[in-house]
């Protein structure tokens, strides 16, 4: 079971445009010499980096080994979650947000924006930040990746939280809703 990325990394999953707020995550990462020295930023999915993204990396003095784009199936994604220092979900808006639950189910500490449904979905199993603030994103990341005890606390909280979102529970709640309607 070889490592996909040899350097410790911070994981981002999914599309990167617009409201997904990937650019602010990159700016937060690049603003910390310590993070850039100690970690890589790995983006899973979303296609290869665009010309604009590559230009952003150059403008922020990020070298090619600082940011990686990786594509693949669920097995590869699972390996990335399991080996990441943390998973960051910087989205400005989400209807539900499955990736944080995926991360929790694979013992990956979660750091998330504090907007829309995210606090309700994630509960106390993440460190939250203001997604409009590069400084807030940076502080949340550093708070987790440089604190083994905080990181482990989030893993433990995530294990408990993800148990609330099983298919069996979903079916029971749906049946309960139908009964109330009848």
Written account of the structure:
This protein has 182 residues and is an alpha/beta fold. The protein is 49% helix and 14% strand. It has helices at 22-30, 33-38, 51-59, 74-83, 98-105, 118-122, 134-145, 148-162, 167-181, and strands spanning 9-13, 40-44, 67-70, 86-89, 110-113, 126-129. Helix 5 links the parallel strand 4 (86-89) and strand 5. Helix 1 (22-30) crosses helix 7 (134-145) and helix 5 packs across helix 8 (148-162). The protein is globular and about 60 Å long. The termini are far apart.
Task: Provide a brief overview of the structure.
The chain is an alpha/beta fold and 182 residues long. Helices cover 49% and strands 14% of the residues. It has a 6-stranded parallel beta sheet with strand order 3-2-1-4-5-6, with helices on both faces.
Number of strands: 6
Can you tell me the overall shape?
A: globular
Strand order of the largest sheet: 3-2-1-4-5-6
Range of strand content: 5-15%
Average pLDDT rating? 91
Largest pleated sheet: 6 strands, parallel
Oligomer: single chain
Number of helices: 9
User: Roughly what percent helix?
Assistant: 40-55%
Structural class: alpha/beta
Order of helices and strands: EHHEHEHEHEHEHHH
Over all CA atoms, what is the radius of gyration? 17 Å
End-to-end separation in angstroms reads: 52 Å
Low-confidence stretches: none
């Amino acid at each position: 079971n070889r490592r996909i990325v040899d350097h410790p990394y911070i994981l981002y999953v999914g599309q990167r445009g617009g409201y997904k707020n990937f650019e602010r995550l990159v700016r937060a990462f690049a603003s910390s010499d310590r993070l850039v020295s100690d970690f890589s930023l790995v983006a899973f999915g979303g296609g290869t980096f665009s010309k604009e993204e590559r230009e952003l990396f150059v403008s922020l003095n990020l070298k090619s080994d600082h940011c990686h784009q990786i594509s693949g199936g669920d097995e590869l994604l699972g390996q990335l979650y399991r080996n990441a220092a943390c998973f960051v979900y910087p989205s400005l808006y989400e209807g539900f947000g499955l990736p944080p639950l995926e991360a929790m189910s694979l013992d990956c500490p979660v750091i998330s924006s504090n907007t829309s449904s995210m606090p309700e979905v994630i509960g106390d199993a993440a460190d939250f930040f203001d997604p409009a603030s590069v400084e807030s994103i940076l502080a949340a990341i550093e708070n987790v990746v440089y604190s083994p005890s905080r990181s482990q606390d989030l893993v433990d909280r995530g294990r408990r939280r993800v148990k609330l979102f099983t298919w069996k529970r979903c079916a029971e709640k749906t049946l309960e809703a139908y009964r109330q309607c009848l």
